[in-house]
Design a protein that fits this description.
The longest helix has 32 residues. 68% of the residues lie in helices and 0% in strands. The chain is an all-alpha fold. It is globular and about 65 Å long.
């Protein structure tokens, strides 16, 4: 049988199941051994995952059929529907290309975090994107799929939890950081857009508070994990994952790891999709206005609705209109086009990647690098 050949797996091959450090050190260096693939009812689990993805795609299709019907039938929306038929196809094609670059950014970041065989890593990353496209809750659905696949392949719970938190922190850090880096200068008049404090300064202040709270929670988790009564069990795994995930992200940022640009690209190229979709229908707002509207509007993606349908569209349209992007019909048409590209492209590519993973479920993962995982 194949094995991951990184330093963590060498201990598993030798049968060493002991911790490398005492309870006081476990929060920074948890055991990341690879275990033998465990029986987690793979067939039933695969069926459930496939059904969830299929049902999500069906819901997505129904949603866009309903949107098309509304654009044709509702008098107030008919002008937006007419705009879509007059779209500048060159900009729409550019949006498709930019969305593919956004997917590439996520794949690059995923490879950095999980350090596995490249072909498998890429397909799993794309599979996560597919789930994120049809299931909302800020990308947690995709991370859950990845965790299930890795668990069936024998990856330890500790390793999965730690790397998943690191991935989530890195992608979230870009979004939260961008809100502050754009919102404050815009409020000060250094960037074009609105100086309304409710649209700029308030989101920026909330972003800074989120960063501070995340650092505080990670520090608290590290201290709790070192206590003897919490030195084992699921609570310990969760505390270590939170602590090391955040600290690992800070170490990567401090080292200026080039592949962190994958996280930036994942956000930036998707934002540019919305921007070029607006250009396809006429409005030419500042990129910074679109970026700020995107960042605040997509907060609705945390609502547990499949793909954030309706909530995200409403949030984006509302924010763009608050930033005085006009005409409204063009804004509605642009948001509908953006959502069609940003949901369907990852969903279709990722579904194909997930199907190609089916026959590998349960096989041990092959490592691609002997280096320790990021943040370790």
């Amino acid at each position: 049988m194949r094995r991951i050949v990184d330093h963590d797996t060498q201990a598993a091959i030798r049968g060493d199941r002991s911790r490398e450090a005492g309870a006081g050190e476990q929060s920074s260096e948890p055991d990341e051994r690879m275990s033998e693939p465990v029986d987690v009812d793979r067939t039933q689990g695969m069926g459930a995952q496939s059904r969830n993805l299929r049902n999500g795609l069906i819901s997505l299709a129904i949603f866009f059929v309903l949107v098309a019907a509304l654009l044709l039938a509702v008098p107030g929306l008919r002008s937006a529907g007419e705009k879509i038929t007059d779209a500048k196809l060159g900009w729409v094609a550019a949006g498709v290309g930019l969305e593919m670059l956004s997917c590439v950014g996520y794949v690059v970041l995923f490879e950095l975090v999980f350090k596995m065989e490249r072909r498998f890593s890429r397909r799993l990353a794309l599979s996560e994107l597919a789930v994120n496209s049809v299931v909302s809750v800020s990308g947690i659905g995709g991370i859950a799929l990845g965790a299930w696949v890795l668990r069936t392949k024998g990856v330890s719970v500790e390793r999965i939890a730690r790397r998943s938190v690191l991935l989530f922190v890195l992608t979230s850090a870009v979004n939260v950081g961008a809100v502050a880096l754009i919102g404050i200068p815009m409020w000060l008049g250094l960037l074009p857009g609105s100086q309304d404090a409710l649209l700029t300064l308030l989101p920026a202040a909330l972003a800074l508070a989120t960063i501070a709270a995340t650092l505080a929670v990670a520090a608290l988790a590290g201290r709790l994990a070192s206590r003897k009564r919490l030195s084992e069990g699921r609570m310990h795994v969760a505390l270590v994952a939170i602590s090391d995930g955040v600290r690992g992200a800070l170490r990567l940022i401090g080292r200026r790891e080039p592949r962190l640009l994958g996280a930036v690209g994942y956000w930036l190229f998707d934002t540019m999709v919305l921007y070029v979709c607006l250009l396809a229908y006429g409005p030419t707002p500042s990129f910074w206005v679109v970026a700020m509207a995107y960042l605040v509007g997509l907060m609705a993606n945390s609502i547990p609705i499949p793909a954030g349908l309706v909530a995200v569209e409403g949030g984006l349209i509302g924010m763009l209109l608050l930033f005085h992007v006009r005409p409204a019909a063009a804004v509605v048409a642009a948001v509908v086009t953006y959502r069609a590209i940003s949901l369907w492209l990852p969903a279709l590519i990722g579904s194909a990647a997930f199907l190609s993973l089916r026959r590998e479920i349960g096989e041990p993962v092959v490592g691609a690098s002997p280096e320790p995982a990021p943040g370790a």
